[in-house]
Amino acid sequence: MRQARDGLVLDLACGMLGEVLLMTRQASLRFYAELRDFLPEDLRSGEVIRSFDVPGSVKDLIEACGVPHTEVDLILANSRSVDFTYLVEDGDRISVYPRFESFDIFPIVQVRPEPLREVRFVTDNHLGRLARFLRLLGVDTRYEPDWSDAELVRISTSERRILLTRDVQLLKIRSLTHGYYVRATDPREQLTEVVRRFHLSAGLTPFSRCMACNGVLAPVAKEDIAHRLPPETRAHVDDFVVCTTCDKVYWEGAHHPELLRIVASGRQADSSGEKHSTVDPS
To answer: Which residues, 6+ apart, have CB-to-CB distance to 36 below 8 Å?
Structure first.
């Protein structure tokens, strides 16, 4: 090293061919609608500035901001639609959108995989009551309280199920293609949220699945299960169904009115809560 007369240190090393200048690159990101839920509160109303030294994928940059890739449907880089593999450059302006029913620009590149032909779910171990409520509505929903994250992702990908979770980090696992972060904390509000988000109202088939194991329910003759019934039930109830998987027997008991209220709330949870959004390419 040598010191110049003005006291500034010249960063010149022996054997170097020249001066190496490291410059930090920056990109600005703007997240729309419910994607802002994942940002720190002080960043939800404006742009997020991210610095980087080496260009990386826009997927990695988005998840570094806290937004899981499974929640993203459209990315615009400098007003041009791109996919998750796009390499972010210095000065890029990135707009990130969730799923909308329609867009005001065309053509676009949607980054989410093709929608599943049949909406089916697997839930993590924090959403057990939600799983039971979805089964009550007839929605195919797998749940076991002791499944690991790896097992949840395996079931989601191999059985083409949407993973419902309140664990943001779980949704960032690269191999996961279909997942949704449940915002609500109350199980009944969670049910309304999921039914509305995936437009399930029209296709609900209440009381067709076992709330305990997710198996399909089928009618059963009273005489075939009479020996399994409490005396009071055997005397006053004639209609029964049985789970074809776990053999659990169901009938209209004292709790049935409450179950009917849950079913009614699910049927009313249509898409009226979702807003049409215009894509702003800025």
So the answer is: 44
* Beta-strand pair 121-123/48-52: unpaired
Angle CA(235)–CA(218)–CA(212) in degrees, nearest 5? 85
pLDDT tens string 62-116? 999 999 999 998 999 999 999 999 999 999 999 999 876 444 444 555 676 655 6
Q: Are 12 and 1 in contact (CB under 8 A)?
A: yes
CB 83 within 8 A of CB 111: yes
Q: Are 147 and 119 in contact (CB under 8 A)?
A: no
pTM attached to this predicted model: 0.77
CB-based burial, 196-223: b 16+ in 10 Å, e otherwise: bbbebeeebebbbbbbebbbebeebeee
d(CA 124, CA 35): 21
DSSP string, 169-211: HHHT-TT--SEEE----SHHHHHHHHHHHTT-GGG--TT-B-T
Predicted confidence (pLDDT) per residue in 133-184, tens digit: 999 999 999 999 999 999 999 999 999 999 999 999 999 999 998 999 999 9
- Residue 111 has a CB neighbour count (10 Å cut-off) of 21
Residues in Cβ contact with 230 at an 8 Å cutoff, skipping those fewer than 6 apart: none
What is the residue extent of each domain of the chain? 25-97, 121-205+259-269, 217-254
Interatomic CA distance for residues 118 and 100, integer angstroms: 19
- Give residue 91's region: left, alpha or beta (phi > 0; psi -120 to 50): left
CATH topology of domain 25-97: Ubiquitin-like (UB roll) (3.10.20)
Say if residues 248 and 212 touch (Cβ distance below 8 Å).
yes
